[in-house]
Amino acid sequence: SVDCSFSRGICDWKQDADDDFDWNPADRDRGDGYYMAVPGFVGHKNDLGRLELLLPDLKPKSSYCLIFSYRLAGDRVGKLRVFLANQKPASVWEENKGKDEKWRTGKIEIFQGAETNNSVIFESERGKGKTGEIAVDNVILISGLCPED
């Protein structure tokens, strides 16, 4: 498995230069590292911010499971989408509101055909709200199918 947490880990993260704003590090409440977030006051409605995880070493004709923590906190804060680089323009995962401010877990199956995915893109789309944040942390990639809860 590959641990792509933002406080540690060996993963190569890249901000998209052609989007409307950047994701920024935010400190965890308990002081144990940080996560990446887009605060509710950044940008305007429908602006996009993309954070790309480069995955150069995935084997063709294999399955992987991407597991990550996410949070959508605040009224009408926006949407969080996940894209696989070779399957754009359709997102493979999307969430547009949090029931509360808690962290949740997202899981995505990645099937590598002859055309391999070399990156995963986390895209934040700003909503109307001006408070809260869209956040991602603890991104882990494991070989094989996603485990059942």
TrEMBL record:
<dbReference type="InterPro" id="IPR000998">
    <property type="entry name" value="MAM_dom"/>
</dbReference>
<dbReference type="GO" id="GO:0016020">
    <property type="term" value="C:membrane"/>
</dbReference>
<dbReference type="InterPro" id="IPR013320">
    <property type="entry name" value="ConA-like_dom_sf"/>
</dbReference>
<dbReference type="Pfam" id="PF00629">
    <property type="entry name" value="MAM"/>
</dbReference>
<dbReference type="InterPro" id="IPR051560">
    <property type="entry name" value="MAM_domain-containing"/>
</dbReference>
<feature type="domain" description="MAM">
    <location>
        <begin position="2"/>
        <end position="148"/>
    </location>
</feature>
<protein>
    <submittedName>
        <fullName>EGFL6 protein</fullName>
    </submittedName>
</protein>
